[in-house]
Specification:
The protein is an alpha+beta fold and about 210 residues long. It has helices spanning about 10-30, 35-40, 55-60, 70-95, 100-125; strands spanning about 145-150, 160-165, 170-175, 190-195, 200-205. The chain has 2 domains: about 5-125, no CATH class; about 140-205, OB fold (Dihydrolipoamide Acetyltransferase, E2P). The N and C termini lie far apart (about 80 Å).
């Protein structure tokens, strides 16, 4: 297959972007400035007080933003989209004797790119060394008190809550009652007892008797 054929144009552009991003990062490192760190510094933190929990934030985290430097995630996206598109069009050509229109072929390539980025990103995040900081892991949230501030939490229907870590930083989490018969109304103080995916199971905080 011609690498620069019209039916593979979006995928050639994606691989070109991959090369451009890699060259930018290499050049920035050589002059003592990391482009990846510069981009990460202006992106909102997924667990910060200004980042609202919701489908968008969960999707960004699912893609591995926050787990890996932003440029690495972008490279994973553009590379998997480009390679996936070429493989898909070549498969179409060999099986059916023709390639699809670029816009149509871009749909399965984009879906492949999202899932490839998710799995590759999570795998890389487990092996890449991280700088030692005063950041806390979400595992450290277990046992801490959170306050429900939006919605009512019930079994199968989490609500948003906020807590303060040992460094005084506010984090926003999704909570759901550990007891399926309980409800957490807005303003309830709860104790996080375990985590299931993006949701923390919690129990009502027992206040001391005066």
């Amino acid at each position: 297959m011609d690498l620069f054929a019209p039916e593979t144009a979006p995928f050639a552009v994606a691989l070109g972007l991959t090369l451009a991003i890699a060259l930018i990062e290499l050049a920035s490192v050589l002059i003592g400035i990391s482009a990846s760190e510069a981009i990460d510094s202006v992106l909102p933190e997924t667990d910060g007080p200004d980042f609202e929990i919701g489908p968008l934030s969960q999707f960004i985290n699912w893609l591995s933003f926050g787990r890996l430097p932003a440029l690495i995630v972008l490279i994973l996206i553009t590379t998997s989209f480009g390679l996936g598109g070429y493989v898909f069009q070549e498969a179409m050509r060999r099986v059916f004797g023709f390639a699809l229109e670029p816009a149509i072929a871009s749909v399965p390539a984009a879906i492949f790119a999202l899932f490839a980025t998710h799995h590759a990103g999570h795998a890389l995040a487990r092996v890449m060394p991280r700088e030692e900081t005063d950041a806390v892991s979400t595992a450290d949230f277990i046992g801490r008190v959170a306050t429900v501030f939006r919605g009512t939490a019930s079994s199968g229907k989490p609500a948003e809550a906020k807590l303060t870590d040992i460094h005084g930083k506010i984090h926003y989490v999704l909570v759901e009652p550990d007891d399926h018969e309980q409800l957490f109304a807005q303003g309830s103080e709860v104790v996080l007892v375990r985590r299931e995916g993006p949701v923390f199971r919690a129990i009502v905080r027992l206040k001391p008797v005066p």
